């Protein structure tokens, strides 16, 4: 018991000495807080995109009715992303999600409330998506979960040669934060994602 108290005291002194405290934002991003009120991202694993690193991204392939891989691939995140969601019954509860990008026109996320309950649409649901990039610029676009579906498509369109705005932002790299709100509902989702390496994953899949 004494050793635990001493260790905790040492950590507290260490943080005070350097004037920094580690914290996690509501979007699930790790940051360092400084005494002067400034902050910065914690770079856990620096991704060298110029060397072909994929960062958090990976290429996978859809399977057929027998569970065998097909020639149709997609890009997703290798580990589940986390964030927060709120609705009429809860506020800032745990959110898990992953991307499914089958081409430049189809960028979707699968959302899991409380980290386990898959978000589905019994009728087509519409969303407003706001994104803040690493420069602080804000981009707005639409989102849709089609009737009977479980994927939220960001900036969807049925036009030929359509390129999703979300895909274009992912291609630029850097960390972005998304705020997604369902139309005519109190349901909202917020999370952050590091886009670095996505371009390499896309080129790997479609080269």
Unreliable runs: 1-18
The Cα radius of gyration reads 19 Å
SSE class:
alpha+beta
Count of the domains: 2
Task: Tally the beta strands.
Answer: 14
Please report the number of helical segments.
Answer: 3
Name the shape in a single word: globular
Hey, roughly how much beta strand do the residues contain? 35-45%
Average predicted confidence as pLDDT: 85
Biggest β-sheet: strands ordered side by side in the sheet: 6-7-8-12-11-10-13-14
Largest sheet entry: 8 strands, antiparallel, barrel
Helix content: 10-25%
Order of helices and strands: HEEEEEEEEEEEEHEEH
Distance between the termini: 58 Å
Describe the secondary structure blueprint for this structure.
Elements: H1 2-18, E1 20-24, E2 30-34, E3 39-41, E4 57-63, E5 69-77, E6 81-86, E7 93-103, E8 106-113, E9 117-118, E10 125-132, E11 138-145, E12 152-154, H2 165-172, E13 175-182, E14 188-194, H3 198-206
Antiparallel strand pairs: 1-2, 2-3, 4-5, 6-7, 6-14, 7-8, 8-9, 8-12, 10-11, 10-13, 11-12, 13-14
Overview of the molecule:
The chain is α+β, with helices and mostly antiparallel strands and 207 residues long. It folds into 2 domains: 40 residues, no CATH class; 158 residues. β7 and β8 form a beta hairpin. The termini are far apart. The relative contact order is 0.17. The N terminus is likely disordered.
Structure summarized in a few sentences:
The protein has about 210 residues and is an alpha+beta fold. The chain has three helices and 14 strands. It has helices at about 1-20, 165-170, 200-205; strands at about 20-25, 30-35, 40, 55-65, 70-75, 80-85, 95-105, 105-115, 115-120, 125-130, 140-145, 150-155, 175-180, 190-195.
């Amino acid at each position: 018991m004494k050793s635990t108290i001493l260790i905790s005291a040492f950590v507290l002194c260490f943080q005070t000495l350097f004037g920094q405290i580690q914290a996690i934002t509501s979007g699930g991003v790790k940051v360092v807080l400084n005494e002067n009120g400034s902050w910065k991202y914690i770079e856990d694993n620096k991704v060298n995109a110029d060397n072909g690193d994929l960062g958090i991204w990976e290429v996978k392939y859809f399977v057929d009715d027998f569970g065998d891989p097909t020639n149709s691939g997609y890009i997703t995140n290798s580990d589940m992303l986390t964030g927060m969601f709120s609705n009429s019954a809860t506020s800032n509860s745990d959110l898990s999600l992953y991307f499914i990008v089958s081409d430049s026109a189809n960028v979707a996320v699968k959302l899991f409330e409380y980290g386990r309950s898959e978000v589905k649409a019994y009728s087509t649901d519409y969303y407003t998506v706001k994104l803040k990039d690493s420069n602080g610029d804000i981009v707005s676009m639409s989102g849709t979960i089609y009737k009977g579906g479980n994927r939220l498509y960001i900036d969807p369109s049925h036009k030929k040669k359509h390129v999703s705005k979300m895909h274009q932002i992912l291609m630029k790299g850097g960390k972005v934060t998304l705020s997604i709100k369902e139309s005519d509902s109190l349901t909202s989702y917020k999370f952050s994602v590091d886009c670095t390496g996505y371009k390499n994953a896309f080129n790997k899949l479609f080269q």
